[in-house]
Amino acid sequence: MMRPPAASSPHQAGQKRFGFNHNFGYAGRQYHIQTEDSGLDRAHIYTQVFCGGTVIVSRKLVYDPDWPEVRARVRQMMKASHRAMVMALAAGELDSQIEERLGSVKVESRRRSNPRTSLVVPTRGRARSRPASDPAEAASEATPAAETPSDEIASFEFDTEQVDETLAALQDELESVMGVALVDSDSGMALCTLGSGIDFQLAAAGQAEVYAAQIEVMKALDLDATVEDLLVTLDQQFHLLRPVGQAVFLYVAIDRARGNLAMARLAMARAGARLEIDA
What we know:
By secondary structure, this protein is α+β, with helices and mostly antiparallel strands. It folds into two domains: 19-141, no CATH class; 158-278, Beta-Lactamase (2-Layer Sandwich). 28% of the residues lie in helices and 30% in strands. The chain contains five helices and 13 strands. The strands form two sheets. Strands 6-4-3-2-1-5-7-13 form an eight-stranded antiparallel sheet. It is globular. It starts with 18 loop residues before the first strand and ends with a strand.
């Protein structure tokens, strides 16, 4: 008996597998956070936290494959789910699940412990869409162990100690700075931050959209050019973005009354040149 052909899925041969992955050191252990789309034939998004071979937390989101612009809307759901899980781990909100599966959490060691962080980002186009406003909230339930991450997803690495030193030097050089950060340009997640004058997670997500919009405009105009920096001028603040390679950008918020924009741009250029991002 012949079987009908399988439904089209982003996981089939010849198509890139789309997902977000972060390796994150927390409380003396190394964790892997993974978010993947199962494909339109299954219409599930999985976000999971692993430590070694142990699943710490699993979250399953269900979506309607018949949604208009479904792929763009699923991408937004994935980014939101992944960001929320990383922030939950960093904030200690998963400690009870960690204790249940691995034993006690060393509270005194909660500061990020990995000297080098590996990030995995999708290799597909970096276009973004506005957040989806779904008529019904996506369902959430437990999910089985995750599939093995695809080799077709591009990765990059950065030295967290070097980034911390670079951000500190940038803050010292710019007396008017409210805060500085290194941001994952695809997920909009603030990877390393310094300063308390701004909500980095909210600001980084918004600035990533600004950066992505500029890239899309350049593509639409068929411009063969490279973004050196982007400036958002407010009545009381300057917000400056400086891409570092293709995967991340430096972000600084400056008090406009005390700041010098020309000096800030030069300082950002020097800081970007010092950073080593391994693609």
